[in-house]
Amino acid sequence: MRMVDIHSHFLPRSWPDLAARFGGPDWPWLRHTAPGEAMLMVGEREFRPVTSACWDPAVRLEAMDRDGVEVQIMCTTPLLFCYERPAAQALECARIFNDAAREICAAAPRRLKSLCQVPLQDTELACRELSRAMADGHIGVHIGNHVGARELNDEGLISFLQHCAAEGAAVFVHPWDMMSPERMSKYMLPWLVAMPAETQLSILWLILSGAFERLPRSLKLCFAHGGGSFPYLIGRIDNAWRNRDIVREDCPRLPSSYVDRFHVDAAVFSTDALAFLVKVMGEDRVMLGSDYPYPLGEQQVGSLIRSHPTLPERTRAKLLHGNASRFFALEPARSGRNQEAAQQARRRA
Ligand code: CO
Asked: The CATH number of the domain where 147 resides is what?
């Protein structure tokens, strides 16, 4: 069955020395340690070991062929957002990484698609870079779920989301800059506890603030990791809305009635959780997303959906490719894959 993977990350093989260009501490850079291996650094601190799958399209395409993924949508790594930097610096970083993404995708333009990043701390610059990136071939934007203390219902962020809707840019919201790091010092607890909570927090800011009442229905919005803790706790939220006026003061409708305003990926790693997610979100709003090529992602992309014991084939097809094709307005499958394989073979010869 055709597969479109909507959640994958890339890093360029190298980028300009940002510390030298802008000054100041903690700029990200790649320290190459062995052929095909590198350490993603933040200043002098080791952040995460990475492999050439991050930057080498041949490695990505080989993994896609192995798993049967036809189209992969890649975005940068949240560490590179630079939302806490001066906006002009974040804009320059966005251009560097956005242009690098297009270069990687150029190896197989029908199979590798990219989401851009923007300097979200400055609405005007963010809108301008989004338009530039869309004209350059990106199919949407990857944003962090907050900018410091500004949540998705912030006026500037709402304006940006309205601009995305006007541009037809899909918006993929990734949790980042996780809460309470001082209480999660070990065991990757920020990724296991705070990330799902961050995503739930963002969805609730949009719902309970009434932001969805002001955002156009045409806005294409998707949250990572199955919407984090949100789907599992929707009953608790509806109950609070019914029984406390301070919960519903800005939100005119039952919170669960807003689930038709956004999509989620299917990265939940459990057949029971996936069945529940489809029940809560509806089978038209869940899309395969693997978090490739990172170790917290699905190691054999698509296996959870493909081998699901209870979801009917029609639903699995929607999750594997149908919903993503519509959401990202992808070209129909046809013979594109074969054409591109032939092109690649020609290039190799
Ligand atoms: Co991710």
From this structure: 3.20.20.140
